Amino acid sequence: MTSITKKIIFILILFIHIGVGYTQNKSILILNGTAHIGNGDVIENSAIGFKDGKLILIADATKIRLNKSEYDTVFNAYGKQIYPGIIAPNSSLGLVEIGEVRATRDEEEVGSINPNARALIAYNTDSKIIPTVRTNGVLLVQCTPRSGLISGTSSIMMLNGWNWEDAAYKIEDGVHMNWPQLQFTSGDDDRSGETKKNEQYEKQLQSLTDFFTSAQAYSKTDKPAKTDLKLDAMKNIFLGKENLYIHVDGSKRILEAITFAKRFSIPHMVVVGGDEAYTVADALKENNIPVILSRIHALPARAEDDVDLPYKQPALLQKAGILFCLSYEGPMEQMGERNLPFTAGTAAAYGLTKEEALMSITLNSAKILGIDSTTGSLEEGKDATLFVSTGDALDMKSNNVEFAFIKGNLIDLNNNQKALYEKYKEKYQIK
Fold this sequence. Notes:
Layout: H1 3-14, E1 28-31, E2 34-36, E3 42-43, E4 46-51, E5 54-60, E6 73-76, E7 81-84, E8 86-91, H2 129-134, E9 138-143, E10 150-158, H3 164-167, E11 168-178, E12 183-185, E13 195-197, H4 201-219, H5 229-232, H6 235-239, E14 243-248, H7 251-263, E15 269-273, H8 281-286, E16 291-293, H9 309-320, E17 324-326, H10 333-336, H11 340-349, H12 354-359, H13 363-369, E18 386-389, E19 401-406, E20 409-410, H14 416-427
Parallel strand pairs: 1-6, 2-7, 8-9, 11-14, 14-15, 15-16, 16-17
Antiparallel strand pairs: 1-4, 2-3, 4-5, 7-18, 9-10, 10-11, 12-13, 18-19, 19-20
Helix pairs in contact: 9-11
């Protein structure tokens, strides 16, 4: 048995009695790995220490004097890569288990305007998909509702915990609004079927205008005569305590959405989707509006676009000085979100540096979601939410997450697919 194997077993034993969802009080020191800080910096021979769920040491191990006896466990990560936990924004993970089974889908509510619908309380910590996603280092998600003109309120969730109370990282970070579409298709996706004009466009836009007018007035009333749950759910948007996430694509519609948010003096607007966002970069920068891009592993929206335009848009936004991050919204997104780091790898192949690409799924995401003071990068004082990989986390060929911690808790990286692999590997005697 090698010394590394012994240390791995020791770490596992150490965490047997640590409750899921609770901050651990043991101190851990990870030495000699290549630490990708998440803010663009890299430390080749790093020393990373954490205790009580917080990072207490981030340094170059060759430049400091260490007292290893101060730590309960010391792990040698020589030759391995260390990353901050990946954050998946705009996610329905935990809300949808089987897309074709209505009883397992809690991402939608009846009605068109539902800002009071809370994705938080529908989040299912027992989902079999969650362990599969965190296997690749995705440790936090923005649990996001879908459908209607105003879908509801999202929350940031950790991918561990016995229930939604345990898993909640930031409760209610913003309200999600879907800008009306000018046209739609009758096919299974946006690129098939017959294209038709949305005859309800003006009516839907007027509905949003009327609702926001009422909500703005309501937010200025300290003690309303009667509590309105829908209007009450919008208060923090106008007070600047939560983001208004507007799901919108196309340059014209993005500009319309910006004008709408300015009309109602919304302090913090975020564009979600952002197809063609690079063409209105000046307006986004002028109004300090960040972008959550939809899945870039996709075809362009228009036949005249470069086939690799979705791959290039992150670099175009980076060059324009726009704060952006990547998401994995789209068909089969729940299971597919384990591939989020690989979309960052694609962005790195099309113009971003590797560390800029990492930022697009870590620190940039944390900044947009308002949690960068506690997570998103490996910095002292932040939560010990990180993972260790034997290879490049952004490369699907070499990514191999060995250990992952959320707030210092060691996370079980087993999942149903790994179990099936081992089962049939033994059955067919595959070495």
